[in-house]
Amino acid sequence: MSIARRQAWRESLLRTTDSARAPFNNWLRGRGSLTARIQAKGRFAVRVLRQELGTPTADEARVLGIEPGVQAWVREVALFCDDQIVVFAHTVLPRRPRGPLTVWLARLGNRSLGALLFSHPGFTRGQLTFNRLDHRHALFEPALTALQLGGSEAPTMLWARRSRFGFGGQSVLVSEVFSPLLWQVPALL
Ligand SMILES: C=C(O[C@@H]1C=C(C(=O)O)C=C[C@H]1O)C(=O)O
């Protein structure tokens, strides 16, 4: 199986005996806002780690319908519940076509993107896809760093999900990587 195929984002969570994934299934599959779900359980916060022009991966460019190598707006955040980092989110917005999303993203700061995506009636959400990230995936190292999981005890894989939101002629691709420490946050149990 090619490397690209092994790292593909899948439309279904493959059945697995991996007991380590079981607790994530519900978080991976939930189509509602992660922000709202965390806010309902504990003290929610967003820490912006990166918001700049960057180069999407070839796969991200393909999903967003832009030429490989063309820069796009990249936003990366850590989501907190009760002072514990629980999610690393990586969002890609093409520069073209410009539109309301360009301005909204630029002005978002440490407010949650989810609060916008799930409150404005003009957004549509595509299918959720899933991935078991490891060192071969471009998001793996940034996620380990953002989730503060580096070092000798670093996990060798992380569960992630991805979906594309549409607003008029614009699209934004949102990838969310879940911390294995999600289960040490009493409020989320
Ligand atoms: C899409 C949502 O927004 C969350 C917040 C994000 C941000 O502020 O950049 C990005 C992705 C999500 O984890 C959500 O709450 O479901």
From TrEMBL:
Keywords on record: Cytoplasm, Lyase, Pyruvate, Ubiquinone biosynthesis
Group of enzyme by EC: lyase
GO cellular component entries: cytosol
Pathway where it operates: Cofactor biosynthesis; ubiquinone biosynthesis
Location(s), subcellular: Cytoplasm
Biological process terms in GO annotation: pyruvate biosynthetic process; ubiquinone biosynthetic process
Main location group: cytoplasm
EC number of this enzyme: 4.1.3.40
Function: Removes the pyruvyl group from chorismate, with concomitant aromatization of the ring, to provide 4-hydroxybenzoate (4HB) for the ubiquinone pathway.
Protein name: Probable chorismate pyruvate-lyase
Reactions it catalyzes: chorismate = 4-hydroxybenzoate + pyruvate
